[in-house]
Protein: non-specific serine/threonine protein kinase
Amino acid sequence: MRPVGSKYLLEEPLGRGATGTVWRASQRETAGAEAAVPGQPGETVAIKVLKEELASDADVVMRFLRERSVLLMLTHPNIVRTRDLVVEGDLLALVMDLVDGPDLHRYLRENGPFTPVAAALLTAQIADALAASHAQGVVHRDLKPANVLLKDDGEQLHPMLTDFGIARLADSPGLTRTAEFVGTPAYVAPESAEGRPQTSAVDVYGAGILLYELLTGRPPFSGATSLEVLQKHLNEEPRRITTVPEPLWTVVERCLRKDPDQRPSAVNLATALRTVAPGIGVHATPAQVDAALGVASLLAPDPAPTAVPGTPGAADPTQVLPAGGSSAADPTQVLPGTGADAPTSVLPGAGLPGSHDPAAATNVMPTTGGQEGRQGPHPWQNQLQAARDRNEQTQVQPVDPSLDPLRHRPHRQQPPQGGRPPQRQAPAPYPQQYGRQQPQQYRPQSPPRQQYAPPRQQYAPQRQQYAPPRQPAPRPEPEARAPRRRSANPIHIPGLGCLKGCVVVIVVLLIIGWLVWDLTPLQSWIHQGEGYWSEIGNGISSVSHWISNLGGGSGS
Ligand SMILES: Nc1ncnc2c1ncn2[C@@H]1O[C@H](COP(=O)(O)OP(=O)(O)OP(=O)(O)O)[C@@H](O)[C@H]1O
Structure:
């Protein structure tokens, strides 16, 4: 068992989240006057010990202390009460009432979706809690089923919203520069995803997602990566669930409007849900059905949403601290190496990593009118931009056919001198915009090829656009072949070339023959040849004569 301050003892972990671990704990002594609930020795409580990463951030510690009064003031039947805040060395902890029962996330997983009536009534209670906190100037910003605890009061499950203020603590300028944003993509409002100013409308959006999940068992937007989910929050409409009664769907749809100014206030949401619930039940009277069908008129947009401190136009409720009440002897007040009375005055003293001058420290807090304390864009903005950039690279872009390698017939290229392949041109830069871009229609054009040269630099990247099927690339006309050169004779006579050759050969042979006859001893050879042939003929006739004589002699 580990002590937390001098008043509490951690017993066993109940669960672990992104911002810390929740423990079952017991009270050792009655807490000091600064605690909202002093408690009794032996009482069981729940203590959320914030992650070291948060606890060691001076901005977070300061905010933790400054928000003490707001968090401790927040009391409502549907809000888990924060009893005390403990700062001790590098430890930050929230002491809460222990809620005996599962959280809504676990309950949904184990029991499946709610009936429409039950979903409406449960969400109405969440809306009550939100309305109470918004009235106090506190926006939850991390509404999700895991932050709704279901207190088992014997007869029914009583929903209680927890983790107020944690998202704001975790959204420290120092942390957001280095770490992932603390939050849950499936429940994030479009304006939060884009790093735009946030108001209480983000909680109404969260309530809409939660209601959708109660009805269907899963949130409306999911994806393989956080960025994919965020993109859907920004660009996609939730899929209509046919089993959800029309009036209830109207409520869901209004809460999930992309434009925060079109979402109802938490008060109106609670009223609307309580009007819808009886009208969609099996025992609904005609009047109840009519009232439910007219629910749209109850969902008027919030005329004065509560701004989230640190975003433009926001008043920071944590700036107003109740005076005094601190005791140096109380461990929840004492910071290492300080010894001063007021927690906010001792904060930037020695012993805290990143601690600095108190005056300077208060300057880094986000204040009304902007995000002066934050340097550089929100990490989600960077991630979203990166995702957009990736998409932009895969957009269908019109390409000059003369530059499109897919449209060329293969041909060999002579490597330039040095034998290196030609270098690719660097891609044109994208417009650096964070805001949502107006979709632009891609119109395939087919001007004459010579004139078609879309300047790539001017091409505005498009979001999720219909990519027209690629037309088969028009092949370039083959170059006209030069006509083969033929004879100068304009009249084409078949075989003339061959005849001319033959005549030339005959003439040449005749000349050669005449020269040989006249200039060589051919003639005398022929005369001699005649004698030779006659000699042979004589020889043959004498032989035949002799043979015939032989035959005649033997016969006589
Ligand atoms: N007051 C409480 N009483 C009883 N159990 C609690 C209480 N608060 C939280 N728990 C339990 O501790 C678990 C973890 O709580 P935690 O708020 O850290 O989780 P999370 O909401 O998922 O995380 P995070 O909000 O930091 O992302 C809860 O799911 C719940 O079961």
